[in-house]
Amino acid sequence: MQSLIVMIIIFLWITFNQLKERKINPKKLWIAPVLLAYVAISSAIEIKSIALNYCAFFAVMIILGVGVGILRGKTYIFRRDDKTGQLFRKGSLLTIAIFFVIIILKVISKYEFQSPSNKFLLNIIQFGFLFEQVGSYAGRNIIFYLRSRKEIV
Fold this sequence. Notes:
Keywords: Membrane, Transmembrane, Transmembrane helix. By secondary structure, the protein is mostly helical. The protein has one domain (about 1-150). It is about 70% helix and about 5% strand. It has 5 helices and 3 strands. The chain has a 3-stranded antiparallel sheet with strand order 1-3-2, with helices on one face. A hairpin with a 6-residue loop joins strand 2 and strand 3 (about 85-90). The protein is globular and about 60 Å long. The chain starts with a helix and ends with a helix.
């Protein structure tokens, strides 16, 4: 029961944060994807027996993530301040829905491959989702950067 309450609180917190208007700073858009890529690559290197097909899986997950990130980036609502020219973004319900579909897929994969015999496969899938998140941040920030360069939003 307590975990359900915690999940509801986290869901509401994420929803409210996604719906708040935030300023886009184009100079800082590269920081989160680069840090997350560093974490993903350094974590994947720690796996001792990565075969070439797992590396291909990670590459596919990055490409899939870029597509999801571009889709998420296009679902944001953008506003430019007339006085300062600063660009602001605000999430929509579709943005939140896409985010939670990805979270649900991660949870389902974790429970699907939970047996001890599937532990290595579960690690590969979890790293795949981490690489997907790298691509998603990169794709979303590409849209933010392109929108920040336009004069009309």
